[in-house]
Write the structure tokens for this entry.
Amino acid sequence: MNAVQQVIAVTASAVLAALLTFLLVRLLDRLRRRDAESEAREVVRQAEQEVENRRREAELEIKELAIQQQAQSEKELRKLRGELHERERLLDKRQDSLEEQAEQLRKQEKAVESTRRKLAEHIQDTNRRKEELSKLLDLQRQTLHELSGLSREEATNRLLELIDSQLRQETGAIILKHEKQVNETCEQKAREVLLTALQRYAAAHTAETTTSTVGISNDEMKGRIIGREGRNIRAFEKITGVDVIIDDTPGVVVVSAFDTIRREIARIALEKLIADGRIHPIRIEEIVANTQRELERHIQKVGEEACQESDIHGLHQRLVDLMGRLHFRTSYSQNVLRHSIEVAYIAGLLAEEIGLDGALARRCGLLHDIGKAADHEAEGGHPKIGAELLRRYGERPEVVQAAADHHEDLKVENPYTVLVSAADACSAARPGARRETLERYIKRMEELESIANKLAGVDQAFAVQAGRELRVMVNAKDTSDESAARICHDIVKAFEQQLSYPGEIKVTVLRETRYVEMAR
């Protein structure tokens, strides 16, 4: 019985446990469902809250964008209103201007009408006086016939003689007038041709002196150049024909001679001796002889290069050598070879401008100063010596005459002489070509401009025409016509007091007022 009870008890316990387990599972399931629903509701609530926040943010952004668009629209509206006001102002201004012009036109019409009326009255008065004058002339003519006792034919003859004499005088005056006009036209054309040729050619200018300097490494070399009891320097001066000046100037030995070729030979030979270090009379003689041969080859090469640069061919070798020697000759500090090449180019350009042979003109210009290369070897001026050389070496008569007469009275039968003379004058007159270096020329131009710029009211000053003219720009707001004239006078007085210059300097003061408006 106990066993049955125990079984029953166990069974009951098992059933009870299963029932409790079932109930517990159901309870847990219900609680889980309740928690899931609560969590779902919470998620839904948060989603709704986020949607609401997003909606509010979107509304705020839309409102800000609307405010910005409204501000931009108002700004554009204000800009359009300003433009409209500006256009209204311009239209009002133009309307006032048109009304003023219309008023002036009415006044001019009245003046024209008054002038027309006065002119008509004047014409009537003139016609009336003309009739009276005709009657008086007829009366005077009749009276003259009666008083002079001349017949009509005799009076006519005398009158024709008087008219013929007057016509001769008037004809002479007309001829003189036309001759003057022809001369002015010829001068203007000549200037145009000359300026065109000069603008087509430009060349550099170099200045030469009568001394050359040779640098030395130390003062001990000066003693070696002088030698024992001066035998080295005496031998060097005797062989080269130059003067060697050795003084207290550190690092420099001066070679002086008027013959530029000798001076160049001496300079190169002295540099070689210093570089070699062996300085004694026998070595000096060897170095100078070698240098002479090298310089002769250099002279020939320079002459050939000058002929090639000028496009001149077929020259005799002696003339080519003389052209190379012109490289070492100066005239008023202007290198004669560069001057000859420049004259050749300018003469050729002038000849081409007027329809002559440009090659022949260049040949005449290149050889016009050939006599300067041999004027120390013959008597007479360089034109005569050059003409003899050119004639001796078979040059054309035009070339010979250009060399002989480019400094004399021009001969019309040979136009190339005229061209060479004009080109020679232009080359010598270029700024910086003669008597003053380029630095002095630039300094003079700067002085002219600086003196003008110091005056009150001057904006800019430009020196033109190689310093022969100064153009000054003054401020139109700060100056009047009277003050501009005073500035011009002050500049002229300053030039006269502070500068020394040949000839005259023209000062031109420009005062300009400009008004600019934009039509929209």
